[in-house]
Amino acid sequence: MVLAQRKVRSKELAEAIGITESNLSLLKSGKVKGVRFATLAAICRYLDCVPGDILAYQPSDDDLRAEE
């Protein structure tokens, strides 16, 4: 993971980008349905990476359903 490669702790990243450690944990575990572009940009800026370094697409049947 990019955090480990950069030797950055979750607590440090959360404080630096202005979110709680709990929310960062949810992002890391993939238990969120979305992420704000501003949050993604702040993470990438702090870790000196691009979104593709920290995001992955995992297909789901939900992807095929129209939003209700």
From TrEMBL:
Gene Ontology molecular-function annotations: DNA binding
Record-annotated HTH cro/C1-type domain positions: 11-54
Signal peptide (residue range): none
PROSITE patterns: HTH_CROC1
Domain of life (superkingdom): Bacteria
Coiled-coil regions listed in the entry: none
Any matching Pfam family: HTH_26
SUPFAM superfamilies found in the cross-reference section: lambda repressor-like DNA-binding domains
Protein's recorded name: Putative transcriptional regulator
